[in-house]
Design a protein that fits this description.
Alpha-Beta Plaits; Nucleotidyltransferase, domain 5; 10-stranded mixed sheet
Amino acid sequence: MSISPFTSQHEAHSLKAEQIRVEGTIYGVEFGRIVYRLAKQGGLRGEVCSDSTSVYIVVLGKPQAIDRLVTDLRSHPSFSTAIQAITRTPYEGNLTFSDFNIISSQPSPIQTLMPPDAATCLDCQREIFDPHSRYYRYPFTSCTSCGPRLSILPAPPAVRTQTSLAAFPLCAACQQETQDANDRRFQSLSAACPRCGPHVRLARPDGSPVDTANLSSLDDLDAVCTLLLQGDIVAIKGLSGVQLACDATNEVTVRRLRQQSSGRPLTLMARNLPMVERYCQVSPEEKALLESPVAPVVLLPSKVGQLPGFWLEAEFLSFHRGDFADQIPSSWEAESTGLPSTSEAASDNPPNSAQTPQSRALKPIAPSVAPGQRRLGFMLPYTPLHHLMLQRLDRPIVLTSDGLADLPLDLSSEAAKAQLAPLIDYVLLHNLDIVNPAPDSVVQVSEGQIQVLQRGRGYALCPINLPEGFEQAPPLLALGDDQNNTLCRVQDGQALLSQPISDLKNSKSYQTYQQTLDSFDQIFADRPEIVAVDQQPNYRSTQLGLSLSQRSREGAGGALRIHSIQHHHAHIAACMAENGLPLKTPPVLGIALDGLGFGDDGTLWGGEFLLADYRGYRRLATFKPVALFGGEQAIYQPWRSTYAHLKSAFDWAELLAACGDLELIKFLSGQPQVPPEMMMNQDLEVVYSPLASSAGRLFDAVAAAVGLCREGAAYEGQGAVELEALIESDHLYRAVVPYPFEAVARSEDRLWILEPRSMWLSLLADLMQNVDAAVISARFHVGLAAAIAALTRTLQDEHPFTLVALTGGVFQNQILALEVKQRLGDLGLTVLTHSKVPPNNGGVSLGQAVIAAARHLASAL
């Protein structure tokens, strides 16, 4: 090792030279600046650079200073969850540095990472609330540690001139900051200030301006706060898409907003963590997630227990907006606007201005925010716009993009005005183009383990390192599923998943899907050689894949080979890949429980036990196939699943004789009594009712049996979600006697069938004895978990395996997942679950990708 001539002989003996490699989902420019600052503080010399997968640091200095650098990097709030590994090795090359430098990144096939948006850092938060800062109350304040990135960057390289902010030339002050290596905004991707950057404006739905003099003495953002407290609904163009905002404690307003949403629980945002903790129990892991740079929506246990359900729709529609005050229950009355009442304003003793929000009475969350749920989805402000808007709010707000899949990003467009005008009161606009909108990420924590349910803002396009053996996989593209779709691109041993793109049957979603596919072509230098699709031939994603393959044959550059992947095999492979199982791992038992997926036998699968590796699988067991009564109608009318299950298990005449007085049977008897194999709709069109082994529809059937979402579900799986929410605590479900299930093997092929007939006998008996619905739910959950474990034990005797992968949307159910995992662990099995990739269809594209890669690598041998 050659020592710099600037180093004295005495000093050289006390110095150490190391090469440090940092791996993870980190953004090289941002990370390099942090390394630079920490190295300078420690008196270190050397350099830092990055490629597509790692950051490399060569450093010379005192050993304790190098140790401190590594420690500070591990604990830095921007990277503590992003760093996957830090490797330190002695450096034997020439070190002739007199200073520490940031050097250009190394070229790579992935031209550069598409960095995710990051929540506003503490330094920027201080600036926007500091009247002496030039960033005071500026909603686009950011630095290299935070701010918009993927949302404003259409393609690499990740530099400001490539972003939509390039339309706003930097002023002299911003230019100086971005060129100063000691400044927080050195090489910032999103540098802007009030003098040179984009701006917001408050308008009415028709685009006309708003006079904010009577709303605020500050600015339009503070005026929005007043509007929310007054009970108004505001459509907001944020940095990751369009959101609707309203006071989360105002039942009247939330009910009005519900006219736009899909019926799913609404997302909440609170000004700070203490406000969240007033409403929910927050564990240390959940606190870290809320305050992380991703700032996802975290599902948290509510402190007030289960929230009431909806009012009757007829009751709601019979009122005019201004007439609701007399209809609100007394428990919701406190401070409906948050502003001083007329009597307070007129009194000689107005409210104490020093009174803190915590000292005021807790305003309950409106029941219609999350009807029938015991958990609330909270997030903290993640942009300066949100921080400024919520600054003086003493209550949470609803902030949701639910139901806005068809809405244009340009809220000033005629299409947006037409869609929103009947619903909203105001719009908050800005003049920055959003290139890659993404929904908020959603996570939950179970037994200390983080589980990503929606991999959106902050997670989208963050690389996932593939397991050993996939290094030589060719560039490939996986097109996902039609519901809750994501795209996945594999290259150089890494997988990148797109943001969720919703249901491809929606025309706007399909347009977004195609735009995301086009953006992948810009991100990656190499065109894919393989495309992976679902084996359901009628999916739009599958048809697009076939079209891409056909066009490649007709053009130059070689044909795009296509791989058709079974849906549940993809679920299992995704779980294997994210848990790091090598390519040559022996088959594992994959238990895939979800709604529906196209099966090899022409039926619909959804409760599957597959002995699988990355290349193939064998179906060992399944839930009993039952008619999907009315096809897709069964998803949104859960009584159909109840009827189909009971009709499959019992003779209907005998059931009427035994349980004819039961309210459930009376209800079902009043529905169209036709064979579950087919039915006629009002247009006399035959609707096919295919057989389906769906675990999701079994949950729907049980939910409808106890009266949950019986006649209609606003979204798929609503009944299952509410069925889980009935169970107050683990004390209930651990104390009940589980419902029995049976498993029988078919004689012709030894396929085991999980038969629920005995479960239905016990459930009907409980209904006849008026057993509480929560107890029925607990008995069902525990009984199903016990049946799954017992069947797994039986399968292990016939097909030895040691690993079990739990996957599919049904395993988002925490009670079922924990019960199954514990029982399988008691059998001595190692259980794999999802954490980085959703167990639902949002992870299917990853599974498709690794299966296609494994098959290609096997064929190349």
